[in-house]
Design brief:
132 residues, 4-stranded mixed sheet, two-stranded antiparallel ribbon
């Protein structure tokens, strides 16, 4: 299964705890809402076996950068400060129950982060056979 989500990738954040409630930051909350909308009309029977996930995250190039810097970074590996595992967590949690029953089914992951003018997330899921 291959799918491209035209949603700007956001790393999963830790919940913030106050005396009255627990909540996530605005960017992550918006990302979860955007992914919910993108997954709303998906007609797919969730995988039941073990899964290999190939993930590509395309991070928006900042507007503040010069044209020269934008051109030199386009398509290159992203060197921002966000951790790859937090990007992985955000997308896998979003797809839980839609493409697979639970993200614990994912036993092999490959993930890359690139700079791009078009922010998006490309996902490929492959159900593994039992004789691997």
């Amino acid at each position: 299964m291959k799918k491209t989500f035209y949603v700007a990738p956001v790393p999963a954040s830790r919940p913030r705890v106050t005396r009255w409630s627990t909540y996530y930051g605005k960017k992550y909350t918006q990302f979860k809402a955007d992914m919910k909308m993108a997954l709303n009309d998906v007609q797919f029977t969730p995988f039941e076996g073990l899964i290999f996930a190939d993930l590509k995250f395309f991070i928006k190039i900042p507007k503040s950068w010069s044209k020269k810097k934008k051109k030199s970074k386009q398509g290159k590996f992203c060197d921002n400060r966000a951790d790859n595992d937090n990007y992985i967590k955000s997308i896998l949690d979003s797809m839980n129950g839609v493409y697979y029953l639970d993200d614990s089914q994912i036993v092999d992951i490959r993930s890359r982060i690139y700079w791009s003018e078009t922010p998006r997330i490309e996902v490929e899921l492959i159900e593994l056979s039992d004789d691997c």
